[in-house]
Design a protein that fits this description.
This protein is α+β, with helices and mostly antiparallel strands. The protein has twelve helices and 19 strands. Helix 1 runs parallel beside helix 6. The longest helix is centred in the C-terminal third of the chain and has 23 residues.
């Protein structure tokens, strides 16, 4: 079967769904093709920290009603080390900017509902997806679905299919430069049926390794422990996880995370990756298809939203005024923000994680870095501006 649309979107994660919604608001037709099932895209437990600009865009785009009702707004974070918590006040340091805790799977639910309300399609379960004719005026997406072969002809293709998708490898290697770094540690993450015991996130440096206290709702806590990138889950019983979390996060005033039934656990390795440029011919990459950041800086989802915001505006200018210049500048505009986020994420990661050698020198250096952040308003402001997100132009 052959169909036609203006923009073909590969991937029904937050980047693809948000782009489809923004295009719909501009009167631009699109088709979203996804290799996974609808249930899989919803149930993936991923990022949950939204920058101020991401929250503002969701509300502006008409998909923020439930976010405003259920999102957990935070005016800062805590840095914990040497047994004490220290608050960084984002709102005071940035003129009122904050972050909001709202799970990525909840964003996906909201965007799917908006997509269905628009009447535009999401094609789940597509197999053998490929993108072709990228250097011509009429690109195409080919795939198999429900036993039949399909082709969607489109003016442009948006590659929103993540770090392991098919869009980035469709660009000739000679046309891309890939920058990447592997980190010698990962995160063991859990979801626990326990009410959060802190009003805001806690980032902790400990001699035994990094730990993070986060949350997903008033009844569910999200927690992380630094571990080896290939850590075997079998060795981490629930009791051992809680003992380690209390040891790394607990403070001298008696604060520690509430315990509860562990609903989910998993290990995620950490890396940084950027590809340049973020486009080739009629293909434009967005989100993890173009860049991956370590999660310490809470930037992945927010970068994806920033990408599709820029892309949607550029496509609107093309269809409404025949302008190609914004599409030509898409990669440069996005990469400036991406590299700033990479710098910040690397800085947060190096300040809070123990190195592979775990030397006493490096630990004392990290403590001194945290002491400096707390003692310098300029350093606290830099952290707050980068974490809560700069104002998008």
């Amino acid at each position: 079967m052959r169909a036609q649309t203006q923009v073909g979107i590969v991937g029904a994660g937050p980047a693809g769904l948000f782009l489809g919604h923004l295009l719909h608001l501009e009167g631009i037709d699109s088709v979203i093709v996804e290799s996974r099932s609808r249930e899989y895209t919803i149930e993936r437990v991923r990022a949950g920290v939204l920058e101020q600009s991401t929250v503002d865009l969701m509300i502006e785009a008409g998909v923020g009603e439930r976010l405003r009702r259920e999102g957990m707004r935070h005016g800062g974070i805590y840095l914990a080390f040497l047994g004490r918590r220290h608050r960084i006040d984002f709102e005071e340091l940035t003129g009122g900017r904050s972050i909001t805790i709202y799970g990525q799977n909840e964003i996906v639910k909201d965007l799917i509902a908006a997509r269905y309300a628009s009447g535009r399609p999401i094609l789940y379960g597509a197999e053998s997806v490929s993108v072709e004719n990228l250097e011509t005026a009429q690109a195409s997406i080919r795939f198999f679905l429900n036993g039949g072969e399909h082709e969607i002809a489109c003016d442009f293709v948006a590659g929103c299919d993540g770090a392991h998708g098919i869009c980035r490898p469709s660009i000739p290697e000679a046309c891309l430069t890939v920058y990447q770094r592997e980190y010698p540690f990962g995160w063991l993450g859990i979801l626990a049926n326990a009410a959060p015991s802190s009003d805001e996130l806690v980032y902790a440096l400990h001699k035994r390794g990094f730990a993070l206290f986060s949350m997903r709702s008033p009844a569910v806590t999200r927690l992380y422990l630094q571990c080896a990138p290939d850590e075997a889950l079998e060795g981490w019983t629930d009791d051992r996880i809680w003992q380690e979390l209390v040891m790394r996060l607990g403070t001298s005033d008696g604060w520690e995370p509430n315990r509860g039934e562990i609903l989910q656990k998993g290990v995620t390795g950490m890396r940084s990756l950027v590809v340049e440029p973020m486009c080739h011919g009629r293909l434009f990459l967005a989100g993890d298809a173009a860049h991956v950041v370590p999660p310490t800086g809470a930037k992945g989802l927010n970068l994806a939203v920033g990408d599709v915001r820029v892309l949607a505006r550029a496509l609107a200018e093309f269809y409404q005024r025949g302008r190609m210049d914004l599409l030509d500048r898409y990669s440069d505009r996005c990469l400036q923000r991406v590299w700033r986020a990479q710098r910040f994420s690397w800085w947060m990661t190096s300040m809070l994680h123990r190195g592979a050698e775990g030397s006493e020198f490096d630990y004392r250096r990290q403590v001194a870095e945290l002491d400096y952040v707390l003692s310098s308003r300029a350093a606290r402001t830099s952290l707050a501006e980068n974490y809560a997100g700069m104002v998008l132009d």
